[in-house]
Amino acid sequence: MSERIGIIGGGIVGIALARAIAQRGLGEVTVFEKEDRLASHQTGHNSGVVHAGLYYAAGSLKAQLCTAGRTALRDYCLQKHLPYREVGKLVVAVDESELPALAEIEKRSRANGVPDLARINDVARLHDIEPHVAGVAAVHSPHTAVVDFAAITEAMAQDVRRAGGTVLLGQEVVTMDVEGATVRVGTAGSEHRFDRVIACAGLQSDVVARLVGADPSPKILPFRGEYWSLDPKRSHLVQGMIYPVPDPRFPFLGVHFTRGVYDDVHVGPNAVPALAREGYSWLSVSAKDTWESLRWPGAGPLAKKHWRMGVDEISASLVKSLYYRKARRFIPGLTISDLTAKTASGVRAQAWGRDGALLDDFAVDQVGPVTLLRNAPSPAATSCLAIADYLVEQYLQARRS
Q1: How far is it, in rounded angstroms, from Cα 296 to Cα 228?
Q2: Are 387 and 393 in contact (CB under 8 A)?
């Protein structure tokens, strides 16, 4: 008899996993998505960048799966005739104080096999790539691409259905009990039994983990990133992507410029604490989510370590001129009126421990027949096909053998 496998979460990782299971004939797969459409949260609210592997520590799971996932995702888009644009990325050191950190990015990039990476120390060469950028040096990743992750998710869901899998929308998992060798999964209106369950629940990953008695740590701390649109009449200011040299103390990249897959240019995101797990504006508030974050043991250590950056990010979120100043460092010709409106935002599911540390790498837990993807922030969308292979090989097939 074929194994019954349940997957919780209809983002790009959950759907990629369902596709891998269904197409390999490993079991009867059912996906539960609590919203009425797929890719409703992190997958459908990000910048659309297919990361090439510039930032991740060599040998880390992120580095390995990003490298494999990027190639697999490119091939999938070509196969399905989905848009995949290699617009290229510049990581720019604005002044000499940022050169040591830029050198570390270059070192990591080369260790991770970023294709055709180039170090640029000549300002004229810099302007050949991005004529309006300001900086003293950069690393250039010409094959960094942009895609439509929501469209990719829908295409993969069709693959799941064609292979005999089931995708259930509007079905929030509210109970999950391990009963011997099986798992009983309950939604508001139905009950299901599975031999294996894999949770790819993103912003709700710690909530789902608690359903089966998993360790409360790591907990999810939601960070909202807000995007400003660049006036289409001024889109010539950005040819591809312009990124800052990231602060190594913080797992966010800082405000940057991206030409999207449909040729719009957006600026951002920033990173501010969200007041709800799915809080896409300051008006989206969950007292329960906020209280849970404040009472978490890691809240004090995190605030003590990063309060200055927190104040800076929140101020820029609330005051447009401060956000503009961050962006203008890289494009001096930018005017405040070029930032036309906050047209999008996303919430990142960032895992953090009891000691206040923000988890940097992907993390997976196991509770009997239940596998829990506990931390899968960026580059999870880029890595989705490789993450799916990893979970199948390391947790599904390994448990069988």
Answers
A1: 32
A2: no
| Per-residue model confidence as pLDDT tens digits over 151-167 | 999 999 999 999 999 99
What three-state secondary structure class fits 44?
Answer: helix
Count CB-CB contacts under 10 A for residue 241: 23
φ, ψ (nearest 5 deg) of residue 90? -110, 125
**Which two three-digit tokens encode residue 185?**
């999964």
Query: Strands, E, within 247-337: which ranges?
Result: 257-259, 265-267, 272-273
Query: Residue 275 contacts by C-beta under 8 Å, 6 or more apart in sequence?
Result: 282, 284, 285, 286, 289, 290
- CA 240 – CA 85 distance, rounded (Å): 10
Report the DSSP beta bridge partners of residue 176.
185
Distance between CA atoms of 234 and 335, rounded to whole angstroms? 10
The pLDDT, as a whole number, for residue 399 is 64
Distance (Å, whole) CA 325 – CA 323: 5
Q: How far is CA 171 from CA 162, 185, 190, 240, in A?
A: 21, 11, 9, 39
Q: What are phi and psi of 248, to 5 degrees?
A: -65, -15
Can you count the helices (H) and strands (E) in the chain?
A: 11, 21
CA–CA dist 9, 222 (Å, integer): 17
Beta-bridge mates of residue 118: 140
CA 24, 27, 28, 29: dihedral to nearest 10 degrees? -70
| Residue 229 CA to its chain's centroid (Å) | 20
Distance CA 353, CA 218 (A): 5
Q: Dig out the tokens for 73 from the structure.
A: 């995702």
Question: DSSP code of 358?
Answer: B
Could you report the per-residue pLDDT of 305-342, keeping only the tens digit for each?
Answer: 888 888 888 899 999 999 999 999 999 999 999 999 99
For residues 395 and 198, the answer to whether their CB atoms sit within 8 Å is yes
Query: Rounded to an integer, what distance in angstroms lies between the CA atom of residue 139 and that of residue 92?
Result: 7
CB 29 within 8 A of CB 196: no
**pLDDT, position 400:** 61
pLDDT tens digits for range 69-116: 999 999 999 999 999 999 999 999 999 999 999 999 999 999 999 999
What CA–CA distance (Å, rounded) separates 179 from 245?
49
What does the DSSP 8-state code read for residue 199? E
